[in-house]
Design a protein that fits this description.
about 190 residues; alpha/beta; two-stranded parallel ribbon; 8 helices; about 40% helix
Length: about 190
């Protein structure tokens, strides 16, 4: 289940060694409910790119797969180093990142923020105080790129949209009032 809909009786009956949850799940409640069964709860913030190495190390220890965890970290680190070396002297492109609904973006401290940063994007809302912004501000800030992740009516962001969905989503974005003047839309 997800975020708050855990069936603790079913979990206890399964007798797991550990329950791993994300921070945005109600892990405190799970910890309280499952401690009487001796089932520890571990928080793994898989959404946060800047915590990936800590998470992989932790999971390697939990599953007694520390060698594989190190292999993964070395592989991932080498890809990041390659990206960083290739883009070292390249000016970052401005990016408007939108998650599900118009105006929902990412800011420092939000889990998508570090993804944009690691991709060498210059987030146009890096100084915003909230993830919900005024949609007209996107036009004023004129990003070079627009990244849209999922839609409001989609259950999972892990399932990619069909080609028809992508065309429809793009048409919706570029038809927003004033957006035809944004570099990302024009180019």
């Amino acid at each position: 289940s997800s975020q708050g809909g855990l069936n603790y009786e079913k979990i206890a009956n399964m007798n797991p060694d550990v329950l791993i949850l994300c921070e945005n799940d109600n892990w405190q409640n799970a910890e309280e409910k499952l401690k009487v069964f001796g089932i520890p709860v571990v928080v793994c913030n898989a959404y946060y790119t800047d915590q990936i190495f800590d998470n992989v190390n932790m999971l390697g220890k939990i599953f007694n797969e520390e060698k594989k965890a190190k292999e993964f970290i070395d592989y991932f680190s080498s890809k990041l180093e390659y990206i960083n070396s290739q883009l070292k002297n390249v000016q970052r492109k401005t990016v408007y990142f939108e998650y599900r609904t118009p105006g929902r973006t990412t800011i420092p401290g939000d889990y998508f923020y570090e993804m944009v940063n690691k991709a060498h994007g210059d987030n146009i809302f890096r100084e915003a105080k909230a993830t919900q912004i005024q949609i007209d501000d996107v036009v004023k800030r004129n990003p070079s790129y627009i990244v849209k992740v999922s839609e409001a009516n989609v259950y999972s962001s892990y399932i990619p949209p069909t080609l028809e969905d992508m065309k429809r989503i793009k048409a919706e974005i570029i038809s927003r009032p004033g957006w035809d003047s944004i570099d990302a839309v024009r180019d």
